[in-house]
Specification:
The chain has 3 helices and 3 strands; from the N terminus they run ββαβαα.
């Protein structure tokens, strides 16, 4: 599986979007660098190309990011 994920910094409220094949390892790497990152959301894909495409859309500051933030707000995550 391939994962597209969203982290949020607990102090600055900044978001980080990424892609990985090992979600637990990647989140742990972020937290080793700065313990205030927490996993907010992830999506699983079978195709690496699909996951990379989704990550790219989220990093583009476009509608995909707006929709994800709205979904998270509606779910009381943000």
């Amino acid at each position: 599986m391939q994962y597209v994920y969203c982290l949020q910094h607990r102090q600055s409220k900044e978001f980080y979007y990424g892609y990985t094949a090992d979600l637990r390892r990647r989140v742990a790497e972020h937290q080793r660098k700065d313990r205030y990152w927490s996993l907010l959301y992830y999506e699983a894909y079978r195709s690496p190309a699909d996951a990379r495409r989704r990550e790219s859309k989220l990093k583009d500051y476009g509608n995909a990011r707006v929709q994800l933030k709205k979904r998270l707000q509606d779910s009381k995550f943000v």
